[in-house]
Task: structure prediction
Amino acid sequence: MLKKDAHSEKTEQKNTQIDEASADVSAGNQTETNNSGQSAEKNAEPAGEAAKTLTPEEKIAELEAQLAETRDQLLRKAADFENFRKRMNQEKQNAIEYANQSLLLDIIPVIDDFERAIQSAEKSADLNAFIEGVKMIEKRLTSQLESKWGLKRFSSAGEPFDPNMHEALMMEKSPDITEAVVQEDLVRGYLLKDRVIRAAKVKVLMPEATPAVASE
Result:
């Protein structure tokens, strides 16, 4: 019995050693596997970076594509601007050509009045009625131009001569004045709001020259 127990004890010790050795081997294999995985990951990272890195030819091709896209965008912008410029010029030209449309529409009824006055005068020998009719038309026209468009006719007779408002067509000297004065309106002038658009053509009275005092 003693011999058998000793033999069993040795067998158990031996089996324990084998199990421990197996465990060590398994642990070593696991460690190696982990290290191999980490090494593979580390090796994979440079490979991925290498895949992202473009060759010089690829970089050139990419830049050329970007340049072509930018050029197309600039050409489209230039074409849009040119079309806009042409449209603005056309609208400006139309505005200039038709700027006086409203004014002309106001004058057309006055022309109609003149036509009716002429037709009436041809049928009637009443000169006074014709004159009165023309005066009424003239008054209507000037009143409408002044109230709606700011065109005002001004009189200058008796006013001091102003070269900005008057154009002297005739002159006459007078001993009764000390400065140039408008004696008569030959053609009346017009203001557009506050600006003279046609100077009045006038006859001007000029003061006589003061005789020089004789020296003793």
Summary: Residues 98-149 form one domain. The mean pLDDT is 81.
